[in-house]
Description:
about 35% helix; 17 strands; Uridine Diphospho-n-acetylenolpyruvylglucosamine Reductase, domain 2; Alpha-Beta Plaits; 4-stranded mixed beta sheet; 7-stranded antiparallel beta sheet; about 20% strand; binds zinc ion
Amino acid sequence: xxxxxxxxxxxxxxxxxxxxxxxxxxxxxxxxxxxxxxxxxxxxxxxxxxxxxxxxxxxxxxxxxxxxxxxxxxxxxxxxxxxxxxxxxxxxxxxxxxxxxxxxxxxxxxxxxxxxxxxxxxxxxxxxxxxxxxxxxxxxxxxxxxxxxxxxxxxxxxxxxxxxxxxxxxxxxxxxxxxxxxxxxxxxxxxxxxxxxxxxxxxxxxxxxxxxxxxxxxxxxxxxxxxxxxxxxxxxxxxxxxxxxxxxxxxxxxxxxxxxxxxxxxxxxxxxxxxxxxxxxxxxxxxxxxxxxxxxxxxxxxxxxxxxxxxxxxxxxxxxxxxxxxxxxxxxxxxxxxxxxxxxxxxxxxxxxxxxxxxxxxxxxxxxxxxxxxxxxxxxxxxxxxxxxxxxxxxxxxxxxxxxxxxxxxxxxxxxxxxxxxxxxxxxxxxxxxxxxxxxxxxxxxxxxxxxxx
Length: 454
Ligand code: MLT
Ligand code: ZN
């Protein structure tokens, strides 16, 4: 089907104003925010509700047109933008940004896939509730995208990944069939867990349109601290001790090199007078004030420096040193982003070995979520000819140590050819069978996660 005819059929579903054909209007949907992943959409289509999503999918399925679902386009593995081939329709879910009332008995809320995490936080805060998942891209990341990628973020040690915080989903299959699992029942053993299957499926099995989310009561008190230590090994040991505190909610680390970039990019004042090798950002939250228990635990810790934040403004000030790493690294170049998990005992050894693995072929910046052994290995100045070898050196080492080649960003297009490093042939073939069953023509998010059959 020609693009003009397709556009007019899609316009009949969503209205002409919501089918974007003009290259200028499409541009923000075609490139990710690192600038590394870019492509060309045949059209961008912006449905308003589940019925329109189903209509778009039916139309594309009949015409054999591949569809790329997109949320806030904050993904980091190329799964949120179309390929350069220019054959995919980008299906933006951003207009599905509704939020229902909080259900205090079930401790749940139903939201549209296009609601941003910040908008959800803003809605819940005055009502005394919270969604356990939080991450630095909260202003643009949408709940649908976070669920599709099973986003992790900063509070996994307390609340788990997005998967643990989703009680149900509404989704549309490639043929337009709507699956409705929004009841959110805490006990419901009636067959395959379709919600669990779709969480983390990266847009390859269905298009997520709404979600039933688990909530937690908002803790009355939160305290934060920025701690400086002399090594990643010391930071890891400190996190092990801090985990003795039930109130511990967040334990994030970054190094001096990353902080230098953040200070240069943001103009923020340095957190301490001296430059320290490693920083650990921690936050504790509870019904009681956790300041004393945190101070007690830190009293005999081997710290080079420490700053404590008791009010929200101060906490945000300290968190900025960690949260602004992504934009600061982007400003310094186009990073090759790796996102790995290592068993905690392997972390210090991996970090120490990294320069040898890279062998001068990249400038590394390490930061991430220490409690889960999740290192963001951001590499700048990698020559295109070295990329493959560098990625294989790092991911191969991670696989050999029993880690994962994607902790929280997903596989997308960036890691699809490395999936076999940490998933067995039997597992990959089971995944392919599921994909073929739910999307027989392989029209949803082609090239993401699994290579299409020849
Ligand atoms: C983060 O932890 O800030 C995110 O995963 C983004 C990133 O890795 O750049
Ligand atoms: Zn992260």
